[in-house]
Amino acid sequence: MASINLIEAFQEFKDAENIDRPTLMKVVEDVFKTLLRKKYGSDENFDVIVNAEKGDLEILRHRIIVEDGDVMDPNEEIAYSDAIKIEPDFEVGEELFEEIDLFDFGRRAILAAKQTLASRIGDLKKNVLVKKYADKVGELVSAEVYQVWKKEILLVDEENNELLLPRSEQIPQDFFKKGDTVRAVVKKVELKNNNPVIIISRTHPTFLAKLLEVEVPEIFDGLITIRKIVREPGERAKVAVESFDDRIDPVGACVGMKGSRIHGIVRELKNENIDVINFTTNIQLLIQRALTPAKISKITIGQDGEHADVYLPSDQVSLAIGKRGVNIKLACELTGLDIDVFRDNDEEEDSQYDIDLEEFVDEIDGWVIEELKRIGCDTARAVLQLSASELERRTDLEKETIDEIRRVLQEEFDRE
């Protein structure tokens, strides 16, 4: 049988390690029984014996030996004179087993069978892959970067299955090259042109949840539960946690001694700031914790229960809002409320907000910020309230530098 060169088709068996042998053997049997039906009109009296390990098969035909001239169905019976040509010791009434030579099917039929077999096994592989990763949605996986494109990255897992990490699922500061190991969560499994496409993500809140589960044994053991995670990937995240054991401080357990547990996660997330807070059903207290690190003076919840007005000291407003409004945006997502921030005094700028200079470290050099702080300007509005000439007189900064600083700060307010 091996001489017919079906080895290439059977080689798929050895590659398809995730497909169970009975399923594979059934596929091969079905393919060749189809071949038998086309040639003989029936497969009732044929046995297809598959040896998946060796990569070969044999087809046995069994018929009853009858007297010459008494053959009613050539698929079930064989004349005595024909039977003794195969083995002279046969007698009428015995059952004859005869091996079918694949050459009898013809070259074209065999090629068609090989193509069908390869196609069926390919479909099985796809189905196994889809099921495997469909069961892993939301799970943490590691894969190696195989190819980097502009809009996505192709990775391969330990079994050489292909995974896709689209640009939209990457942290903005992510930079990977071929051979790097990447951790992410399985987001979804799609079928495109009948081919499985496995999408992984590093921006999904579940990614942070799984990293916490790895770093914090209490979460893995179920002693601490994560109630909600909201993220602005690469910038800030807020995690509400709750403990079912009064002896365990959920925030302290997640952060670890001197931040030992959270630091590794922060590095993985490209220095994303992570605020871990205690979950509570007290909505006012939850808002207060959600607006960390700002200190709140007063909170008023709207009658509709969907809106909150938060009043803070002047120097805390910028902290509550955060750069580009990220902090308050995440607080709204975490609490499920629309939150408006106000100063808790009657100044003319009651509804205005300020921004801490530390929020501009990406655009303004650290030494420049320190120089501005030296003269008492620690917020954006404090800087803009001074004229360019006054800043030039009181600091060691060049006029061009001052003009650039004022432009950056003013653009931030204009955007808001």
UniProtKB/TrEMBL annotation:
Location in or out of the cell: Cytoplasm
UniProt keyword terms in alphabetical order: Cytoplasm, RNA-binding, Transcription, Transcription antitermination, Transcription regulation, Transcription termination
Keyword Transcription: yes
Top-level division of the source organism's lineage: Bacteria
Transmembrane feature ranges: none
Positions of the S1 motif domain: 136-201
Residues annotated as domain K Homology: 233-295, 304-396
UniProt xrefs under PANTHER family: TRANSCRIPTION TERMINATION FACTOR NUSA (PTHR22648), TRANSCRIPTION TERMINATION_ANTITERMINATION PROTEIN NUSA (PTHR22648:SF0)
Function as written in the Swiss-Prot or TrEMBL entry: Participates in both transcription termination and antitermination.
Subunit structure: Monomer. Binds directly to the core enzyme of the DNA-dependent RNA polymerase and to nascent RNA.
NCBIfam families the UniProt entry points to: NusA (TIGR01953)
Family membership noted in the UniProt record: Belongs to the NusA family.
Stated name of the protein: Transcription termination/antitermination protein NusA
